[in-house]
TrEMBL record:
Highest taxon above the source species: Bacteria
Official protein name in the record: Putative surface protein with fasciclin (FAS1) repeats
PROSITE patterns from the UniProt entry: FAS1, PROKAR_LIPOPROTEIN
SMART domains registered for this protein in UniProt: FAS1
InterPro entries per UniProt: Adhesion/Biosynth-related (IPR050904), FAS1_dom_sf (IPR036378), FAS1_domain (IPR000782)
Organism encoding this protein: Hymenobacter luteus
GO cellular component annotations of the record: extracellular space
Length: 352
């Protein structure tokens, strides 16, 4: 009898020991830290080298919670003509200015104590990066949520998965492109395009007229946020001729008409691509009345990431039926960031 009880007790003890062993084997392994994920994933080797070279690894280790927007090696390889294309080239950097520039770029990808899932709850949101502030928007990221994906700084800059890779101390979101922080005001961006001989430099000539001084001052104000609709040189000249056949150059336009034209291309708020069609009437510097507010008509193919063919039109509300579809300006490039706002490029000018 005793031996039978002893055998039963031994069987029970064996089951308990086996259960404990199985439980230990099924326990989840400790979650990796942010640094471990970036160090151990070969797709992030260039990013990890950059964080080492710029002494930003302590930011990963010391932050309570950090969102890392992580450009892949392929994203860094797109930066041709720079010393930031590979881990090897980054670790070989000796120039202090180049290292500081890389540090600023990487700081723009770090969001302390902020999570991208906040965007899904409110559709779009503004985030503050680790980059020191420079102007109204110099260290800000603007994110928009759509169908499990998040667009950063507009629809055409970069997208990432809203879920990311969660870890101890934060979350990592892979990026297909490197985000470059804005370095110039809107006025400086237009001036640079003119200096480069770009197709959008004639607008700068108009801003040099004395009557345009108030508009130029606003576009130079680093503490405000504006949207600039920048027409091409050819488009601006076509619009001037439609307004008056004698206006064959910017110099030929009377002061009052030129000022009104410039004001119609400036909106006193940041209007990224994903908000263009949200309102029927968008006030400009010319005013909020129907004659001066702008309508944006059309839409975006969010899966092809492009505007619907020739349908993104910009017009003063009262011009909707007066001008033909070909005479309305169309958006051709979007979301060019500046430290105090955003630029959308037009193929024509907005006609008063």
């Amino acid at each position: 009898m005793f031996s039978r009880y002893a055998s039963l007790l031994l069987l029970l003890l064996s089951g308990l020991l086996l259960g404990t062993a199985c439980q230990k084997e099924s326990d989840p392994t400790p979650v990796s830290s942010l640094e471990q994920i970036l160090r151990d994933n070969p797709e992030y080797s260039t990013l990890y080298a950059g964080l080492r070279k710029t002494n930003l690894l302590p930011a990963l280790q010391q932050s309570k919670f950090l969102t890392v927007l992580a450009p892949t090696n392929a994203a860094f390889a797109e930066l041709s003509g720079t010393p930031y294309t590979t881990a090897t080239s980054i670790m070989a950097l000796q120039d202090v200015g180049q290292i500081e520039q890389l540090r600023r770029v990487l700081q723009y990808h770090l969001l302390p104590e902020q999570a991208l899932n906040e965007v899904a709850e409110v559709e779009h949101k503004q985030f503050t990066t680790l980059l020191p502030a420079a102007g109204a928007a110099g260290n800000q990221l603007y994110l928009w949520y759509f169908s499990g994906k998040i667009a950063l700084n507009g629809l055409y800059t970069a997208w990432t998965d809203a879920r990311g890779q969660h870890t101890v101390g934060g979350v990592v979101h892979a990026l297909p492109h490197v985000l470059l922080p804005p370095a110039r005001t809107l006025a400086e961006e237009v001036r640079q395009r003119a200096a480069d001989g770009a197709e959008y430099g004639l607008f700068w000539e108009a801003l040099q007229r004395p009557v345009a001084a108030p508009v130029l001052a606003l576009l130079s104000d680093a503490q405000r946020d504006y949207t600039l609709l920048l027409p091409s040189n050819g488009g601006l000249l076509r619009t001037l001729r439609r307004m008056n056949p004698a206006w064959t150059s910017v110099a030929a336009v009377p002061d009052a008409a030129l000022l009104r034209l410039l004001q119609l291309h400036c909106l006193p708020t940041r209007l990224p691509s994903y908000l263009l069609f949200k309102n029927d009437r968008n006030p400009t510097l010319a005013g909020s009345q129907w004659d001066y507010a702008l309508d944006f008509h059309g839409g975006f193919d969010l899966f092809g990431l492009k505007p619907y063919d020739a349908s993104c039109q910009v017009m003063p509300h009262t011009n909707r039926h007066r001008l033909s579809e070909q005479e309305h300006p169309h958006l051709v490039a979007l979301d060019q960031t500046a430290t105090n706002g955003i630029i959308h490029l037009l193929d024509d000018a907005v006609q008063p």
